[in-house]
Amino acid sequence: NAPTTRRPIAPLPDRLISQIAAGEVVERPASVVKELLENAIDAGASRISLRIEEGGVRRIVVADDGVGIPAAELPLAPLRHATSKIATLDELERVATLGFRGEALASIASVARLSVTSRTADAGHAWKLDAETGEIQPAAGARGTTIEVLDLYAATPARRKFLKAPATEAAHCLEALRRVALAHPDIGFEAVNDGRAVEPLPAGGWRERALAGLGDDYKSAHRLVDAEAGGLRLQGVLGAPTLNRARADRQFLYVNGRFVRDRLLGYAVRQAYSDMMHGDRHAAWVLHLWLDPSLVDANVHPAKTEVRFRDASAVRSFVFHAVQDALREAHRPAGGSAGQ
Ligand code: ADP
Ligand code: MG
């Protein structure tokens, strides 16, 4: 049946465009946490704190001691497609920062109340931007940036309905923190959930942090992998096949420091474990894959948890063999204690 009336084609208002885009970037409070933590890392922070209230729905605060944002640029931070991280196609193709789309703060601001307080090294004091009003005021604060997000989805009740209980959302937020922390052992993280401090992941190298992230059981039952071939490097901790799990809830894959989900590589690791583990069980592992940024594309989805490899089959084969070799070594009779 043909429509009897039609409306003229018209560009959508900016705020509505951001609200539509926010559906992809800000799925739940944990997505906000991930984006804010990534911004803090891109800012070169050495300490990052996360505070959440009511599962992050009521309040999320991420504070860092990074380079900060100059007062003159503060109003630009929550603008859609405004970024300090890339400026050209060439830079996009070899991007090394976690962010580059200039979308997160804009999306968050469209579905929550956002404020950004920041101070650069050469500023006499901090400045605070209220993204709703665009007002900027002098504020207290040391060098770095504090971003506060209040009342997520308050204005979009349809989305709010999809949220789970606060405890579940809080668990997702803390999982987002864990994912980031595992990839950045040099950064100190602290978290407070509804006023209670969350036990932090220990400082030290990525190995200590990975083991803490996997769980105490794995401390004496793991293998290290560190392999390099053809410009690819794989480092990580492989949980012993005997400590397999019913769910694949302790598998952390990073590509150039970015947490990703990759079916192909997940499958390669699974295959490498396959002759030591039952098919319906899951291994626990933390793997960091490093390669030339121009050989991998993170610009697949706004949440950037998917990547595309220029040569996927070479990467898959490398990961499979590196993991298999490391696991086989563990089974050599005179191989010493697990985990070296
Ligand atoms: P992107 O990270 O893709 O650039 P965002 O919307 O997340 O986009 O952030 C926009 C800009 O705001 C960033 O490019 C950066 O310049 C600035 N910014 C955001 N968070 C921070 C932070 N914690 N420290 C310093 N600058 C920040
Ligand atoms: Mg960002």
Automatic annotation (TrEMBL):
GO molecular function: ATP binding; ATP hydrolysis activity; ATP-dependent DNA damage sensor activity; endonuclease activity; mismatched DNA binding
Cellular component terms (Gene Ontology): mismatch repair complex
Keyword NAD carried by entry: no
Keyword flag Hydrolase: yes
GO BP terms: mismatch repair
Source domain of life: Bacteria
Residue intervals of the DNA mismatch repair protein S5 domain: 211-328
Alphabetical UniProt keywords: DNA damage, DNA repair, Endonuclease, Hydrolase, Nuclease
Family, per entry: Belongs to the DNA mismatch repair MutL/HexB family.
Known role: This protein is involved in the repair of mismatches in DNA. It is required for dam-dependent methyl-directed DNA mismatch repair. May act as a 'molecular matchmaker', a protein that promotes the formation of a stable complex between two or more DNA-binding proteins in an ATP-dependent manner without itself being part of a final effector complex.
Protein name: DNA mismatch repair protein MutL
Species this protein is from: Zeimonas arvi
Lineage: Bacteria, Pseudomonadati, Pseudomonadota, Betaproteobacteria, Burkholderiales
Gene: mutL
Residues of the full protein shown: 2 to 341 of 630
